[in-house]
Amino acid sequence: MSSVSQSVGDAERQKNIFANCFWGKDDAGFEVLTTRLKQSKQTCEEVKNLFHERALIEEEYAKRLSKLSKIPVGKDEIGSLHDALETVRQELEATAKEHIGLSQKIRAELEQDLADFIAKQREKRKLQQNVVEASLRNKQTQVSFAQKAREKYESECLKLPGLFESKKTAVGKEMEKLNSKIEKTQLAAKAADQEYMQMVKIAADATQKWNEEWKLACEVSIQSIMNITGMYIMNITDEGWIRF
């Protein structure tokens, strides 16, 4: 394989890595991903509430069926009609038990499982988000410090052309004052340059740390989203609660 083909292949693989899809101006990808996670959490809550309401409906239906099965019907009848009415009563009672069982199953196997899942995902998401947010704040702070240091350096440098221009017409003590001022300004510019270089290094380190933690957060987030999606599919298509 040629080096060009290999480079193209590497570039394509990098494009297909989930963590490489959330980089952009002003760290906009952070907001995109956190918003998607919040939406997934909201959907989880909505699905859990759906299960809760379905369980209540099944419970209420079961109670009404059970109450209906206890209503006396044809108590004075005998023979086959009596037997038929008793069968109806028993069927109502059995159906009531099925629906109360379904209600309990939804609560225990779907609603509670999803509630536990939401709690675990919330804990993981919060821990990861705290790390990422702290890293992002640090990066933004250090970049801001570097920008201010650059502005300070440029400000000192901009003073020098005017001072050198003034020397062309200065004489005597005025010349001595200008030379002293030029020397001080040059020293200040040199110190500002050193400070700027130091702040750039710190900002670069902070940015690198942010990049690493953000990439990890992206991978953790896609796993979280996949887990949530899997939980939706497993619960929503569970035959135990959709067959009635």
TrEMBL record:
Checking InterPro entries in the record gives: AH/BAR_dom_sf, F_BAR_dom, FCH_dom
Q: Which SUPFAM superfamilies match?
A: BAR/IMD domain-like
Domain F-BAR as annotated: residue spans: 15-244
Recorded hits in PROSITE patterns, A to Z, give: F_BAR
Q: Which GO terms describe its biological process?
A: cytoskeleton organization
Q: Which UniProt keywords apply?
A: Coiled coil, Cytoplasm, Cytoskeleton, Phosphoprotein
Gene3D superfamilies, per database record? Arfaptin homology (AH) domain/BAR domain
The Gene Ontology CC terms held by the record are: cytoplasmic side of plasma membrane; mitotic actomyosin contractile ring, proximal layer
Coiled-coil residues are 136-195
The subcellular location is:
Cytoplasm, Cytoskeleton
Record keywords: Phosphoprotein included?
Answer: yes
Q: What is this protein's record name?
A: F-BAR domain-containing protein
- Species of the source: Gigaspora rosea
| Lineage, highest ranks first | Eukaryota, Fungi, Fungi incertae sedis, Mucoromycota, Glomeromycotina
